[in-house]
Fold:
Amino acid sequence: MIEIQIDKKLYGANGEMQLSVDLQIQEGSFIALSGKSGSGKTTLLRVLAGLEEAKGTINVSGDLWMDKTTSLPIQKRELGFVFQDYALFENMSVEQNLLFVSKDKPLVEKLLKMTELYELKDRYPNSLSGGQKQRVSICRAFMKKPKILLLDEPLSALDVTMRHKLQKEILLLHKEFQTTTIMVSHDPSEIYKLASRVLILDNGTLTEDGSPKEVLLKTQGSQKFSFSGELLEIKKVDVIYIAVVAIAQQIVEVVVSHQEVQNLEIGAEVVLSTKAFTPSIMMA
Amino acid sequence: MIDFEPFFLSFKLAALTSLILFFISLPLAWYLSQTRSKVKPFIEALSALPIVLPPSVLGFYILFALSYNSPIGAFFEDTFNIKLVFSFTGLVIASCFYSLPFMLQPLQNGFESLNKNMLEASYIAGKSTLSTIFQVALPNMKPALLTALIVTFAHTVGEFGVVLMVGGSIPGETKVASVAIYEMVEIMDYKAAHIYSAMMILISFGVLLSVYIFNARHNKRFGL
Structure:
């Protein structure tokens, strides 16, 4: 069992905030960490890694990483960290990047072959694509055979195809090495595919904790599908109103009634859902 | 016949100063680049003073501090029998003060421009601060490194006021190229002054040009 109990004062964009997390994680599980920006997700990962100080305790399967009096140095914590911007050593080739962590050549070969990077092992990071760089970075994180793998929005800078490919690889490696993985992600489909447990962090505290199904499938009533988006504009056309809503990469127009318009606010986050026959739109 | 000794002396002084300053500035630049301490601006301001102070002010205080009348000067002369003023040793010490910002600032900028996550990735990989500096930080800031070394070297070759005040003009000991040119002009030996000055310009230009060419190539290779 991994026990995490952390308290830290943060000075974010919304002023002072208390990051306060009390958490127990089963070894080998895949946790998705989600929440608004500035809610403390990255800080939580950085405290786990030892990159930032905090009060509290971290106990990883009996190894005490942090308590009231001591804090294990970053170098001694058995963890891997994947940054959103890859953070590869630019002066080293792909293979050297991995060997820098540990001189375990067979492991380098295994990881590079699993991620189809073996042919690129002598290339330098500046000649790789974003997706290739992130795969190198993920492989590098596994070189330490980490007990915990921390991924800070690893795929958010990549296109959809590459993201799907890397999701599979992350899951493959997670299973192969039996690590406990904590991944910051905002993508519901990604979370659904990878994680066994979802945590939502809001303003420094965990507000939701459950399986992806429980947390993500929040359709109340009898909607057939629903999307959340941003209400951009309400146009009056003759006797009806048309609401323009941005959903993911799409702009959609829906007809709304005079009554519905009263309850809507431009710029607000809205949920657009439909039952079998009647589409409806309401403030989220 | 032209006497090249002042040139050799200048380059010897510059090489030694650059070497010493590199090892002094490296930990200091690293500290300044990583710290969030409130003393940082004070250290920065103090170390940048030689850029703005008249060389005579700096020379005066260094002369004062190193002379036999000060505890430092007296200690060195009594204990090691080393005279710190009007000697080559004194010139090296004075040059280290004078050229410090030219080594420190490029190194600090270099460290600060590195991706912080890359350094953290090195710690997570289990590496100490020292191996992170030498295996990750420095290899990724070659232009800054080269700029620091070359500009310090060139700046030390070009110094005049401090050298004259602390070292005087002892042939073979403290008479560097810039002082030699000054003396030639004073005794109206314009021909020699022309030759020396032209050589200084050529050498300095060549050195600076090679730095800029290297940096341009480096940036192109890394797509900057």
Remarks:
- Residues 5-221 of chain B form a domain with the MetI-like fold fold (CATH 1.10.3720.10).
- Chain B touches chain A at residues 115, 117-118, 120-128, 135-136, 139-140, 221-223 (CB under 8 Å).
- The mean pLDDT of chain B is 90.
